[in-house]
Design goal:
This protein has ten helices and 14 strands. It is an alpha/beta fold and 312 residues long. β12 and β13 form a beta hairpin. α5 crosses α10, α6 packs antiparallel against α7 and α6 crosses α9. It binds nicotinamide-adenine-dinucleotide (NAD) and (2S)-2-hydroxybutanedioic acid (LMR). The site of (2S)-2-hydroxybutanedioic acid has 10 residues, from α8.
């Protein structure tokens, strides 16, 4: 029997729950929101697609009733403000830190053994906060960002190369921020061959730049931030954990010397399985990539330092 809770029934939370339910990753999916009736409505609407789409997962929507989340195996936290056009993710810290901290405290009362997937922004700092506030083993706190950013990298590569995104391997590491993420151009491949064989340097640089501002571009188009790809990426992370798939997905995890960094949560490739993130994979960055990773860490660390100025 497995149970997954998604906190926040807004655009990303509902899309995550929808993907999880359709894939039948759990016997029960609980969707929780603070807004009266909102999660109940989203869950009911979603369940009305079951007979049309051919899935059967118990979906429970609740308004702030954490007792219904009891004994969850995995909890996805999407509660909090999204950014508006012109904003950075970092500007959300003041409001979202308080929300994420209170959600983690509430969840732990009923699901002390849960694995947490943190989505709320600024995600790397919210992941660090969840780790410090919960005191849980590091392997049970996973920030979702790299899964989404890597999917965007593959999207822009597939458009530039006119190939299927499913034949591409491409990874984004570092922070989940407009200037902190690092699309690993050197390691991106199409059917095992370097994408640099097919794209000139300027085009590949543009693909990487578009990837980095992928979230901002969508926020500009939509008036709020994206949800289809974020929901699918969150569900992919949950799937590898709940099905013990051992997939390698870049996630924000607590580093203790890996990639030259400590006391920070930052995006690196990890193996995801039933105990959470199980192993960090060393991609042997070259000097230029390592310098970008260190710069990214500096920016995320500055954001983490803001946490101590907030009354949480
Ligand atoms: N990490 C990523 O890759 C990624 C991707 C997309 C969005 N995000 C972030 O995810 C968050 C949610 O985005 P969205 O588009 O779904 O926003 P949204 O406004 O559509 O939904 C947020 C929901 O959180 C709920 N909420 C607020 N406080 C709560 C609390 N204390 N307890 C329970 N629910 C609460 C709100 O009522 C709302 O329904 C944002 O912070 C956004 O920046 C992260
Ligand atoms: O762009 C945002 O603010 C939301 C999210 O982090 C994303 O990348 O889509």
């Amino acid at each position: 029997m497995s149970k997954i809770t998604v906190v926040g029934a807004g655009a990303v939370g509902a899309t995550t729950a929808d993907n999880i339910a359709r894939k039948e990753l759990a016997d029960e999916v609980v969707l929780l929101d603070i807004k009266q009736g909102f999660a109940e409505g989203k869950a009911l609407d979603m369940f009305q697609t079951a007979a049309l789409l051919g899935w059967d997962t118990t979906l429970t929507g609740v308004t702030n009733d954490y007792s219904k989340t009891a004994n969850s195996d995995v909890v996805v936290i999407t509660s909090g403000l999204p950014r508006k056009p012109g904003m950075t993710r970092e500007e959300l810290i003041g409001v979202n830190a308080g929300i994420v901290k209170s959600v983690v405290d509430n969840i732990l009362q009923y699901s002390p053994d849960a694995i947490f997937v943190i989505v709320s922004n600024p995600m790397d700092t919210m992941t660090y906060l969840a780790l410090k506030a919960s005191g849980l083993p590091k392997n049970r706190i996973i920030g979702m960002g790299g899964a989404l950013d890597s999917a965007r990298f593959k999207c822009y590569l597939s458009l530039a190369m006119n190939v299927s995104p499913n034949d591409l391997h491409a990874t984004v590491i570092g922070g989940h921020g407009d200037t902190t993420m690092i699309p690993l151009k050197r390691l991106a491949t199409w059917n095992g061959t370097p994408v640099a064989n097919y794209l000139d340097g300027a085009t590949l640089d543009k693909v990487a730049a578009d990837t980095m501002v992928g979230g901002a571009t969508l926020t500009g188009l939509l008036g709020t931030s994206a949800w289809y790809a974020p929901g699918a990426a969150s569900a992919a992370v949950v799937e590898s954990i709940i099905r013990d798939e051992k997939r390698v997905i870049p996630c924000s995890v607590f580093l203790e010397g890996e990639y030259g960094q400590s006391d920070i949560c930052l995006g690196v490739p990890v193996v995801l399985g039933k105990t959470g993130w199980e192993k960090i994979i060393d991609y042997n960055l070259n000097e230029e990539e390592q310098a970008l990773f260190s710069k990214s860490a500096d920016a995320v660390r500055n954001m983490n330092n803001v946490l101590s100025t907030l009354s949480l």
